[in-house]
Write a structure and sequence with these properties.
The complex is a heterodimer of chains A (323) and B (506). Chain A has 323 residues and is an alpha/beta fold. Helices cover 44% and strands 19% of the residues of chain A. In chain A, strands 1, 2, 3, 4, 5, 6, 7, 8, 9 and 10 form a ten-stranded mixed beta sheet that branches. In chain A, helix 6 links the parallel strand 5 and strand 6. In chain A, helix 2 packs across helix 9, helix 4 packs across helix 11 and helix 6 packs across helix 11. The longest helix of chain A is centred in the N-terminal third of the chain and has 24 residues. Helix content of chain B is 74%, strand content 1%. By secondary structure, chain B is mainly alpha-helical. Chain B has two domains: 466 residues, no CATH class; 37 residues. The termini of chain B are far apart. Classes of the chains: A alpha/beta (323), B mainly alpha (506). Chains A and B meet through helix 2, helix 3, strand 6, helix 7 and helix 8 of A and helix 15, helix 16 and helix 21 of B.
Chain lengths: 323, 506
Amino acid sequence: MNTRLISASVLASGIAALAAGGALAQEFPSEPVTIVVPFSPGGSNDIVARQLGQQLSQMWDQPVVIDNRPGGGATIGSAYLAEQDPDGYTIMIASVTFTMNAAVRDDLPFNPREDFTPIALIGQVPLVVGARPDIPVEDVASFFEYIRGSDALSYGATGMGSIQHFAGELLNQAVGAQVQVVQYPGGGPAMTDVMGGFIEYSIGSMTQMMPQVEAGNIRPIALTSLERSPAAPDIPTLNESGLEGFEVIQWWAILGPDGMPEDVVETLNSSINDVLTTEEFTKFLANDGGTPRPMSPQETADFMAANYDRWAEVAEQANIVAE
Amino acid sequence: MDIWSNIGDGFSTALSVTNLSYCLLGVFLGTFFGALPGIGSLAAVTMLLPITYYLEPTTALVMLAGVYYGAEYGGSISSILLNLPGTPSNAVTCLDGYPMTQQGRSGVALFATTIASFWGGTFGIVMLYTLSPMIAQWALAFGPAEYFAIMVFGLVAAATVTQDAPAKGLAMVVVGMSLGTVGADLTTGVARYDFGNFELHDGVSFIALAMGLFGVSEIILSISQKIDKPFIQAVTLRSMIPTRDEVRRSPMPMLRGAGIGAFFGALPGTGPSIATFIGYALEKRLSPHADQFGKGAIEGIMSPESANNAAVQAAFIPTMTLGIPGSATMAVMMGALLIHGIQPGPQLMSENPEIFWGLAASFWIGNVLLLILNIPLIGLWVRLLKVPYGILYPAVICFICIGVYTVRTSAFDVGLVLFFGFAGYVLRLLRFELAPLLIGFILGPMVEANFKRAMLIYRGDFMTLLERPISGSLLTLTGLLLLWSVWVIIRNRRERRQLLVGGADD
């Protein structure tokens, strides 16, 4: 009788404690959270958002819904987010392309700098300059020499104003070369033409490049990040090979609509940063040669502002403008 | 020797209870969605992708692949019975499959497509096994110039598919190509013909176009005709027995179709739809009874269905060996692999042999399962379509809208499919053929993009296109095809005139 009572009360207080703890920890997401992905399923934004969403969902014990709203080169999803309630229950993944679009297009139905609340940065992945296997160069220096020395060369990118295009034009500017850009519908088709020797190189994500590099179908010339990647420590960076400060990286951030309450932004930011530091997430990004890059909301906002400025400048110099 | 042990390991992976049951589930759901008009393999795979997140990578792939080729199998059922292509690549099957239904021979048509699909699938799998390394090398010989040449060849072949009025056929190809120009141009970033509309920035949805032209317009046509069309007949096993003549005429188209399908399936950028059109065009050209095409010729369903399923299996070759998805559906499949942290590419076969060989083995098991689902259980699928029109039509419109919506989660595309439905209805009333429009839509933008690339790479030198061996030969072949079809037209006209003259003499 006594023991039963005791165990019952222990149980009861245990439940109470759990419930209280739960209520404290879960003030913010008291209902499912939606992450808008402004692209079709299967792309890098989608994959990163799904991994993040799954881990956030476990942490919050709330469903996290991935809502793919592709179209208009991320315009439709972004415009949709800008119109949502700024309550933190609808957020969006954005990548470096989001800040490049702002530099290239003047027809966006929203103001990229004003209509969103930067919440957190997720991580970054360097790009690789991948050349055809029989390109007649020995090292990065002779590669520069080679592309500077001919006006009949071409490189592949994935569309006007894409990250590959920006990286390629920045490389042209830095080296003083005039390699012609040729646009492809995706990184895969561009790589095929590199492998086939139809174009000299393309500057693609490590995810796409590394399998072909390992198979010997593509020659890695250099990385576009400031530092070497642990995933491929043998590949030099452009930064260390004479183009000091050369940096074009793929990154992802989480944005909300404009006017989000500060405490919700802080909660989201710290939850996301908690995910970023888990071994699971670090490993997930490391698969693609990437690294998490936790930042405070303010740092994220500054980082994005710096990106907007930088791409506007590159676009103007290289004349990357739609129309 | 090594390949046999790989194949053996593959089968033991694929035959595990889990993989086998998910394979069955995949092909069952695939046939189900494929048979429903409006929901193609792309929509089916995309819709079912989320439920595979929690499966083992191999199992997830086995199931999704089952959905993909199951949908291509199932798509022929509604093509034949309702004249509604279940998936865009079954559109050609309507041309002769539906006339067979109108003649009360849907059983034969369904049996024939199942056999053709099974053979095509099997051939594609054998190609996947044996040619993966070779095709990977060979595909690299295709650059922009070569792609341009092969697309032009495809367009010219497409223009000759048209039966009665070549001018009307050509006009439809041009309309298709024009529709294909809508959207942001890759090279300049300029949005063409989008009228400031962001939904049109990525171009007109192929699914919306195909489903509008082939699905919605058919329904409007049937409603406006207000007659009870020969309604879906009971398909008994006995009604599936083809005539001796048909049995004799079937094997060669089926073999050729499989070859064409494996070729275009393995080539990134082309795929099942193009393979079916080219297979059909070839058979029509080769057949001694070309006049029967469009009126229920057995060759007209054997070749495209064989090509379709061979292409579906062969499409895995570039994806698995090069990590390059050849089509939108394969892009979703590749996304599924990446979600599970597996990198498709040359490393896949060495690093994850159980996935490559297990998946390949599951294809064949899946094809056997489909044979079982489609012949003895055909009644089930027919019953699915045997709902009264009053219920079926609104439901089909709903399925079409849901299917179109799922692909790009776009309400705009739903409006688009209805628009194309009305446009297709008007064009049909004016006796225009709609298939060439679709071909123009698929091939037109590819021709343009590859031409632009070739011109950029070769700095505007047209002669390069003719000097490069592969593109040169293909363009020569295209020229010969054009000359030949002109000659055929002249010959036919002369014969007709002689016939008329002869008639006058009597």
